[in-house]
């Protein structure tokens, strides 16, 4: 590599010598005024026939997601250009035939930059401007030293991928070496050799110079003057001189023949590694003694222009490029954060991404880490479940759930993890609703005007949606529909004596009437009551009959009172009240002002608290624990049991009063 670099340096110096102050350009053949250029095959003055350009567009319609091969790049390819037709959500990928990923492999998307692979350096571009429509691209000068495959990571319809590369053909034109270039020097990246050794070429060049100069001061490349730059005459190589070579320049003043410009070292390299730059230092020296002389002794117009030369071209040691940490995955509690760590090398003042094995001499930094911004708040259940909203069937019950910070304060629910929030409302099933006897009030009238009679009421079995008692069905214990009554003794007559029918047992609807039937003996002014057997030979008149005065219409029916909700300190009990028509169906025709109460207070006496001998304060300053709201933690709840219990009872009473 060092020899190639030295030859390339000499070539640059010779080019500088041939430059003229007049501003005329130098062709690729290094002749001043030449218009020859390098063709696409890399041949100076070529006609593009020494190679083959392979190009095309990959437009296949892809259906499945993932990697799809676009084109194969053969070994020896140069001028490689792989470009998407326009921007898309797809990605280009590059892999060697041996299976090694170079760019965007293994479902990992690399950053734009330079990547080494296949013996050349690929430039990966991904325009990120919002307004840009350009797609991704791979560019490389080549040549490649192995077969490479280009892939597309398909995610949306293929916009088309244009590919182009150059391969050398069998009829390639050999590069023409300029006459003054020594055999073995680099020509457009190629090493050119001729059928003679370097030493022979140098010796012949020196002899030609001696013959052409004819008595003038000798201008030759000797071992001592290899770094001097004599004036070159265009007729020195007359047998191979091109037609368009410029005429010889006028002879410089005689005083310049004794001195010429010589390179005496170079400037310090701009970098210690990774391809820096330096410039040759030219001084005016005597031709024979090579002693340095004032610059006025040399022709200033012939002083070579220092050209930049590469130096310290070996790559700098690879290093780990560490990206910024991402945000913590959680706003509180233990989370994760990530960062990108790439192996990079600096070359030509550019940082290039290289394969990770280049950094194997260094310990790779961590790419993931735990993080915690703050301690999370937690959910606390403040009250037990309330009673079910219904005594039977399916209802709902609730409880108080709060988000509490790590210092015991109630904070907004958003401070806690909503996914872990305990339910504060749920359904409750009290079992099938029981059936209860529904009763009317007793009738006000007795069935007999005198003597024994009865009062009646209506009884019906219906489903109860309020009371939880009884839990079974109505059963066989049907409440009595009649109760005895007595309006005093009656006076009668002999025989079967039937008294008058009593009033109907109810004021409306179907009821019964009673009458007294007795066996009597009629005297002149009185009746003597006899034993009924005395009248057994007579047909006894009926003593009871049904009656129906008028339709009742709707009436209020109610159940028995339920159990009290609390055993002390004031509770309530309920019953269900319904409006029923004559046929015992629900009605809305009852007078609302006559509706019986459905709820009433009960057990107003104070509760006698149970004293827990084990619940005591272990510290004298438990009032501070209460003030700091630390009773939510089990440790303080135990250490200051009495104080925390009193506060809890007061809060429970306050919630209950609401």
UniProtKB/TrEMBL annotation:
Q: Write the record's keywords in alphabetical order, separated by commas.
A: Extracellular matrix, Hydrolase, Repeat, Secreted, Signal
Q: Which InterPro entries match?
A: ADAMTS_ADAMTS-like, ADAMTS_spacer1, PLAC, TSP1_rpt, TSP1_rpt_sf
What terms describe the molecular function in GO for this protein?
metalloendopeptidase activity
Chain ranges of the PLAC domain: 611-648
Location within or outside the cell: Secreted, Extracellular space, Extracellular matrix
Task: Tell me if Repeat is a UniProt keyword of this record.
Answer: yes
Q: Which GO terms describe its biological process?
A: extracellular matrix organization; proteolysis; supramolecular fiber organization
Q: Where is the composition biased (Basic and acidic residues)?
A: 196-217, 232-243
What is the predominant subcellular site recorded for this chain? secreted
**Do the record's keywords include Coiled coil?**
no
A single cellular component GO annotation:
microfibril
Q: Name one Pfam family in it.
A: PLAC
Q: Which domain of life is it from?
A: Eukaryota
Spell out the residue ranges making up region: Disordered: 174-263
Quick one: signal sequence residues? 1-19
What function does this protein fulfil?
Answer: Promotes FBN1 matrix assembly. Attenuates TGFB signaling, possibly by accelerating the sequestration of large latent complexes of TGFB or active TGFB by FBN1 microfibril assembly, thereby negatively regulating the expression of TGFB regulatory targets, such as POSTN.
Return the protein name.
Answer: Thrombospondin type-1 domain-containing protein 4
């Amino acid at each position: 590599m060092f020899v190639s670099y030295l030859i390339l340096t000499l070539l640059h110096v010779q080019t500088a010598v041939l430059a003229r102050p007049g501003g005329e350009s130098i062709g690729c053949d290094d002749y001043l005024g030449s218009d020859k250029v390098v063709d696409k095959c890399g041949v100076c003055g070529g006609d593009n026939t020494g190679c083959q350009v392979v190009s095309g567009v990959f437009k296949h319609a892809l259906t499945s997601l993932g990697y799809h091969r676009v084109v194969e790049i053969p070994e020896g390819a140069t001028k490689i250009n792989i470009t998407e037709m326009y921007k898309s959500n797809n990605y280009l990928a590059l892999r060697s035939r041996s299976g090694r990923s170079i760019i965007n492999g293994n479902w990992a998307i690399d950053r734009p930059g330079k990547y080494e692979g296949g013996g050349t350096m690929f430039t990966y571009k991904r325009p990120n401007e919002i307004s840009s429509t350009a797609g991704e691209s791979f560019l490389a000068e080549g040549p490649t030293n192995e077969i490479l495959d280009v892939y597309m990571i398909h995610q949306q319809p293929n916009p088309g991928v244009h590919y182009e590369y150059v391969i050398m053909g069998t009829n390639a034109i050999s590069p023409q070496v300029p006459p003054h270039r020594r055999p073995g020097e680099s020509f457009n990246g190629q090493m050119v050799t001729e059928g003679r050794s370097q030493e022979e070429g140098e010796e012949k060049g020196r002899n030609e110079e001696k013959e052409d100069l004819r008595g003038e001061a000798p201008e030759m490349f000797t071992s001592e003057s290899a770094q001097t730059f004599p004036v070159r005459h265009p007729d020195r190589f007359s047998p191979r001189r091109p037609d368009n070579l410029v005429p010889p320049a006028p002879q410089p003043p005689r005083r310049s023949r004794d001195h010429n410009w010589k390179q005496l070292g170079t400037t310090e390299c701009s970098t210690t590694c990774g391809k820096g730059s330096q410039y040759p230092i030219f001084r005016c020296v005597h031709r024979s003694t090579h002693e340095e002389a004032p610059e006025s002794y040399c022709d200033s117009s012939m002083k070579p222009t220092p050209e930049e030369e590469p130096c310290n071209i070996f790559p700098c040691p690879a290093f780990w490029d560490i990206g910024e940490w991402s945000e913590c995955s959680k706003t509180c509690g233990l989370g994760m954060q990530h960062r990108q760590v790439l192996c990079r090398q600096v070359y030509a003042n550019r940082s290039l991404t290289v394969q990770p094995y280049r950094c194997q001499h260094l310990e790779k930094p961590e790419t993931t880490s735990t993080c915690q911004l703050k301690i999370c708040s937690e959910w606390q259940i403040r009250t037990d479940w309330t009673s079910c909203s219904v005594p039977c069937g399916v209802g709902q019950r609730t409880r108080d759930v709060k988000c509490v910070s790590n210092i015991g304060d109630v904070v907004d629910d958003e401070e806690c993890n909503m996914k872990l929030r305990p339910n504060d409302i749920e359904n409750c099933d009290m079992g099938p609703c029981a059936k209860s006897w529904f009763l009317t009030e007793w009738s006000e009238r007795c069935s007999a005007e005198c003597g024994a009679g009865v009062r009646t009421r209506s009884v019906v079995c219906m489903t109860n949606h309020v009371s939880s008692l009884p839990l079974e069905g109505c059963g066989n214990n049907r409440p009595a529909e009649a109760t005895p009554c007595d309006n005093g003794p009656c006076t009668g007559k002999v025989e079967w004596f039937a008294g008058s029918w009593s009033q109907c047992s109810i004021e409306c609807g179907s009821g019964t009437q009673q009458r007294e039937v007795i066996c009597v003996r009629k005297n002149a002014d009185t009746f003597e009551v006899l034993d009924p057997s005395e009248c057994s030979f007579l047909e006894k008149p009926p003593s009871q009959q049904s009656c129906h005065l008028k339709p009742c219409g709707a009436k209020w029916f109610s159940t028995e009172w339920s159990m009290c909700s609390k055993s002390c300190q004031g509770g309530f009990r309920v019953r269900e009240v319904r409006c029923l028509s004559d046929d015992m169906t629900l009605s809305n025709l009852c007078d609302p002002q006559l509706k019986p109460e459905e709820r009433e207070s009960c057990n107003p006496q104070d509760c006698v608290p149970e004293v827990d001998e084990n619940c005591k304060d272990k510290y004298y300053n438990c009032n501070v624990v209460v003030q700091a709201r630390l009773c939510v933690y089990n440790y303080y709840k135990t250490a200051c049991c009495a104080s925390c219990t009193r506060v809890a009872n007061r809060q429970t009473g306050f919630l209950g009063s609401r």
